[in-house]
Design brief:
About 75% of the residues lie in helices and about 0% in strands. The protein has about 60 residues and is mainly α. Keywords: Membrane, Transmembrane, Transmembrane helix.
Length: about 60
């Protein structure tokens, strides 16, 4: 009987999804209360992209060594 393949946990994808959800919630709060700046709304997305980019650069640097 064949073994079932398990899906690998993709850290980058899950981090990006969490950032999108969190930014969406902050966007709804901004529309409702209008007490947050645009930078505060989209900072989770920026942070996620910076983390993902740093991880990819770090992986590439380790492979080159």
């Amino acid at each position: 009987m064949a073994k079932k393949r398990k899906k690998k946990f993709n850290f980058q994808k899950s981090l990006l999804y969490l950032a999108v959800v969190f930014s969406g919630l902050l966007f709804l709060l901004k529309i409702s209360f209008d007490n947050q700046s645009w930078f505060q709304v989209f900072s989770p997305l920026l942070l996620a992209f910076i983390i993902i980019f740093s991880i990819q650069v770090f992986k590439t640097a380790i492979r080159k060594i």
